[in-house]
Amino acid sequence: MVIKGPKGTHDIISNDIKKWHIIESKLVELMEFYDYCEIRTPIFESTELFLRGVGDTTDIVDKEMYTFLDKGNRSITLRPEGTASVVRAFIEHGGFNEVLPSKFYYIGPMFRYSRPQTGRYRQFHQFGVEVIGSINPYLDGEVLELMMNIFNSLGIKNLNLEINSVGCPKCRPVHKEELKKYLKKNYNELCPTCQVRYEKNPLRIFDCKNEKCQEIINNGPLITDNLCEECNEHFTNVKNYLDMTNVDYTINKKMVRGLDYYTKTAFEITAGREGAQSSIGGGGRYDGLIEELGGPSLPGIGFAIGLERVVLTMEEQGLFDNIPKTKNKVYVANVSDNNIDAAVKLVHELRNNEIIAINDIMSRKLKGQFKYANKIDADYVITIGDDEIANNTYPLKNMITGEQVYYSIDELIKNLRGV
Ligand code: HAM
Predict the structure, then answer these.
(1) 113 contacts 50 by C-beta, under 8 angstroms
(2) Whole-model pTM over 0.90
(3) pLDDT (average), residues 137-166
(4) Where exactly are the structural domains of the chain?
């Protein structure tokens, strides 16, 4: 029986991997300009990290974690997101003793056990950034500008950035109480999940799909109306930065985000794809998380982008339709077995001169080699026979125009590198 990949996972192969390389190389290039350093953390961590870091009232911790006991009876969880791991590593390696802020970025797989559908997978990939150590609202602005710069640099259109402030431990409890007072009157009409949310985290009722719950919560008090002076001023300065740097945004006073650690600025971005899986990135401030995880009282902010959703969006927007070729691909054909060694030597020399070169390793006849060269989209074929070796000139055939010119090896290299 054929074994298939697990549900909710996917292989990235053939032409698709090129799309990932385009995106990933753009990301790495941009990170250099903003002076962020890559961090690679393990894909599994102690379960406790996410219980404390992501929060036990979130869907992620409640029902989406891949948790198991290892052979040493330790509870292990495949990371559902990157922020908690980065903060854990920052604390563990004493990042707070270094110059602040610490600026990290990461690319890698995340794992969430949810119902798979287009744009939602059980193993998916995130690119994320985390900055630890500054409470300055202009940092929020810079991080948001960076996120938008990424999408713009990839050519993504129809971007919609929504921002909100979700308050801080000073103003949020006051708001929570006010919200609970309002919801108490409608408690019996809330769905069972929201009745639990009412107790644990009533703000999450905004995320409920149930129409009645939506109707109730939509008429309730908003966190933005109850922000303390500090949060209000912070939010004003974030908006100021975005205005200065021409970043378009809308304020969504109902956005709360599905993770518990957010304080002050929270944001989400879509790019024209409809439906529940439309968010291609999101993030916010987490000024209490470093302390919550046993570190010093330092603020943090970051975001993560869902790379599968970026690929889907770019496909839909036709952004992979004309991927320009950056290098020539050359197939070196041997007329007979006698010429194989000469083909191997030429391929070796071409590769050393940064030319993509391939020769036969299937013992094909010359005709079969040409067929193969066509299939792998070779731009040129060089044919090597006894005469070519004797004269030290080789026919370079352009596979698109059919034109063929004889060159010495030096001339071949010069011509092929000149794309
Ligand atoms: P998040 O909103 O849970 O935030 O995820 C960020 C992005 O990951 C989403 O906008 C989406 O594009 C993608 N994503 C999430 N779940 C899936 C899935 N099952 N399949 C495919 N893509 C998915 C975080 O993870 C936070 N750690 C972001 C952050 C960083 N906040 C501060 N720093």
Answers:
(1) no
(2) yes
(3) 97
(4) 14-171+227-316, 329-418
Return the residue whose CA atom lies nearest to atom 20 of ligand 1. 120
The DSSP letter of residue 324 is P
Q: What is the dihedral of CA 29, 33, 37, 40, to 10 degrees?
A: -20
Each residue's pLDDT tens digit, 190-204: 999 899 889 888 888
d(CA 262, CA 172): 11
| pLDDT given for residue 14 in this prediction | 85
The answer to whether the 14-171+227-316 and 329-418 domains have the same CATH topology is no
Nearest CA to ligand 1 atom 30: 303
Helix (H) or strand (E) holding 398: strand 394-398
Residue bearing the CA closest to ligand 1, atom 33: 302
CATH architecture observed for domain 14-171+227-316: 2-Layer Sandwich (3.30)
Ligand 1 atom closest to the Cα of residue 280 is: 12
113 backbone φψ class: left, alpha, beta (φ>0; ψ -120 to 50): beta
| Separation between Cα atoms, residue 294 and residue 288, nearest integer Å | 10
Question: Which stretches within 74-136 are classed as H helix?
Answer: 83-92
Test site for ligand 1: of 41, 62, 65, 126, most ligand atoms within 8 A of the Cβ: 126
Query: Residue 121: CB partners within 8 Å, gap ≥ 6?
Result: 8, 9, 10, 308
SS3 102: strand
Q: Which two tokens stand for residue 329?
A: 């691909």
CATH topology of domain 329-418: Rossmann fold (3.40.50)
Integer distance in angstroms from the first to the last C-alpha of the chain? 48
HEC string of 249-304 equals CEECCCCCCCCCCCEEEEEEEECCCCCCCCEEEEEEECCCHHHHCCCCCCCEEEEE
What is the chain's mean pLDDT, rounded?
A: 94
CB atoms within 10 A of CB 215: 11
